[in-house]
Amino acid sequence: MLTPEQQEHYSRHLLLDGFDQDKVRAVSFHVEGRGRAALWAARYLAASGCGRVVVDVPAWHGELRRLAPWTELSGPVEKKIDLSSEGSVEGEEQVRGVQAALEAIREVLEK
What we know:
CATH topology: Rossmann fold
Order of helices and strands: HHHEHEHEH
Largest sheet: 3 strands, parallel
Strand order of the largest sheet: 2-1-3
Number of helices: 6
CATH architecture: 3-Layer(aba) Sandwich
Radius of gyration: 13 Å
Low-confidence stretches: none
Number of strands: 3
């Protein structure tokens, strides 16, 4: 159950048909990689309200904490997203990271 503060923070998510914020909060991810794709995936997962998002770059924790004050940034994880290989075009890496995060959230919501 969401606190009133969380309900306000995730109010746009709560308006979406089929988006179960409690399901998303219950899942944990490890985003493997140190490049732009991994950073963008971690950003999207954190902003979506995942319960835990573990990353390989501790320097990202400050930004992730601002995006998702209730998301844990360490501990055991259920799912891994491997974005350790990097491409050559920066914009493509961002898109790859966002697509990986969205696909991961979609899989959680379909269960």
